[in-house]
């Protein structure tokens, strides 16, 4: 398992300054990212590593893999990724980068629509305020 930021690629070539190998998909990731000062996740699979105590300090002892679990809209209108550390459970918000995979971001954004917190067959009743839309009769609970 690759968990260091300065390891060589499988072909033996050393990555550029600040570049790292993604511990999840094994892609070589450049150290610079458009739209952010601190590259903290893979732009392909969006996974990260728990390496920071504070943004950019690279001082965390955990080093666990951080799964992208969702997206959030920040106060300034920018999107942010939510990551959960698979080792310690920490959840952290990280801003997206300009080269992040748009399909992967969109997939995270719509994930809750595929897993609603209620049975989908109740949706017509919820929308109609207790009326069954098929015949207009009141539904008794």
List keywords for this structure.
single chain; 141 residues; alpha+beta; four-stranded antiparallel β-sheet; 13% helix; disordered N terminus
Describe the protein.
This protein has 141 residues and is α+β, with helices and mostly antiparallel strands. It has one domain (20-127). 13% of the residues lie in helices and 19% in strands. The chain is built from 2 helices and 6 strands, in the order E-E-E-E-E-E-H-H. The protein has a 4-stranded antiparallel sheet, covered by helices on one side. The longest helix is centred in the C-terminal third of the chain and has 13 residues, at 102-114. Residues 19-105 form the RNHCP domain. InterPro entries: RNHCP. This is RNHCP domain-containing protein.
Strand order of the largest sheet: 3-4-5-6
Mean pLDDT across all residues, rounded? 80
* Domain unit count: 1
What is the strand tally? 6
Low-confidence stretches: 1-15
Largest sheet: 4 strands, antiparallel
| Helical segment count | 2
The percent of residues in helical segments reads: 10-25%
- The helix/strand order is EEEEEEHH
Distance between the termini: 53 Å
The general outline is elongated
Query: What's the gyration radius in Å?
Result: 21 Å
């Amino acid at each position: 398992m690759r968990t260091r930021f300065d390891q060589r690629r499988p072909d033996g070539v050393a990555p550029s300054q600040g570049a790292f190998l993604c511990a999840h998909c094994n892609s070589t990731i450049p150290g610079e990212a458009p739209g952010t000062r601190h590259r903290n996740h893979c732009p392909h699979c969006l996974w990260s590593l728990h390496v920071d105590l504070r943004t950019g300090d690279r001082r965390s002892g955990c080093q666990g893999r951080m799964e992208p679990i969702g997206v959030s809209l920040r106060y300034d209108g920018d999107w942010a990724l939510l990551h959960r550390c698979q080792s310690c459970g920490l959840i952290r918000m990280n801003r997206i980068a300009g080269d992040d995979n748009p399909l992967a971001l969109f997939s995270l954004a719509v994930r809750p629509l595929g897993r609603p917190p209620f049975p989908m067959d109740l949706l017509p009743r919820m929308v109609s305020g207790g009326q069954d839309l098929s015949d207009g009769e009141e539904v008794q609970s």
